[in-house]
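Lab intake sheet, docking and co-folding queue.

SAMPLE TYPE: protein with bound small molecule
LIGAND NAME: coenzyme A
LIGAND FORMAT: SMILES
REQUESTED OUTPUT: full 3D complex as structure tokens
PRIORITY: normal
SUBMITTED BY: R.K., bench team

The fields below were copied directly from the construct record.
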Amino acid sequence: MEQPARPVRLSQTTITELMVPSYANFGGKIHGGILLSLMDKVAYACATKHAGTYCVTVSVENVEFLQPVEVGELVSLHASVNYVGRTSLVVGIRVESLNVRTSVIKHTNSSFFTMVAKGDDDKPAVVPKLILETREDVKRFIEAMRVREVKSAVKDQMDDARSSIEVDQASELLKNERCVLQYIP
Ligand SMILES: CC(C)(COP(=O)(O)OP(=O)(O)OC[C@H]1O[C@@H](n2cnc3c(N)ncnc32)[C@H](O)[C@@H]1OP(=O)(O)O)[C@@H](O)C(=O)NCCC(=O)NCCS
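RESULT FIELD (auto-filled):
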């Protein structure tokens, strides 16, 4: 039997963590991998709260680190279910970094994690419908729905592009590229 629909607000989740020196890269800024790991955790918690069952990460979109995060900053990751399909959920994550001395907050990135709910049999499980209570909820749902349609069309085009590689025309195709062609067909 299908679970009852749930509002967006019930699964909204925030994780906050202090950026310690061991998280830094060779340039002294926080490793992108540390932030990705935190994003995956908050996406998992948020999706699982909504689905009521274990969720796995299937794809990640729009990971661009717009501003570096410094050691000593307090990073908060705000996650919200933006969209649900039959068994998948799109979780939007906004990452903000607070300088605890100056109280200045910067927005470092917003990303979207697609998660799939799994049942006890390890197969994709149907997730509850999403109750959209605010204008923002509706806007995000429609946006995610459109992105899902565009992604599906792009995937088809990418599959075509990959299946029709004209190696025999390489000298013409690659003449303006930054490569040295030593293979002669
Ligand atoms: C995700 C997974 C369950 C999909 O399995 P599948 O047999 O393709 O299942 P389905 O075709 O029924 O798809 C299930 C849902 O995933 C979605 N999906 C599948 N591949 C996707 C992709 N690349 N991007 C976005 N959504 C995807 C489908 O659209 C479907 O959503 P819907 O039910 O809301 O329409 C399977 O690939 C898996 O278990 N992957 C490993 C995930 C994991 O372990 N992640 C942790 C990181 S290692």
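REVIEWER NOTE: The two ends are 60 Å apart (CA to CA).
SIGN-OFF: pending second check by T.M.
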